[in-house]
Design a protein that fits this description.
- The protein contains five helices and no strands.
- The chain starts with 8 loop residues before the first helix and ends in a 23-residue tail after the last helix.
- Residues about 75-80 have low confidence and may be disordered.
- The chain has a domain at about 10-65.
- By secondary structure, the protein is mostly helical.
- The chain is elongated.
Length: about 90
């Protein structure tokens, strides 16, 4: 049986993008870290007022599983460097 997404998708996505820009963490990290989780839930405003923590986190995980969360704000990958061999 699948999870029914009862949380409005766009406000949740917008809130996650703003939170991720500020904290540079993954959804998994935020969910596992109690301080980050509380900070995220507090940043939700009206979404948190109308939905339980469980509903919000399941909805966010569902969006992640469906690859609907942007990765453009995740931690930057280190640049690729070329090895230069000196000419003798």
């Amino acid at each position: 049986m699948g999870t029914i997404l009862t949380v409005d998708k766009q406000p949740l996505l917008d809130s996650w993008i703003m939170f991720q820009r500020e904290h540079t963490v993954s959804v998994d990290r935020m969910i596992c870290d109690p301080l980050l989780r509380v900070a995220f839930l507090e940043s939700l405003g009206s979404i948190a007022a109308t939905h339980s923590e469980n509903e919000i986190l399941w909805a966010l995980m569902s969006l992640r599983k469906r690859k609907e969360l942007s990765k453009r704000n995740s931690k930057p990958t280190p640049p690729v460097t070329k090895r230069v061999t000196p000419v003798s």
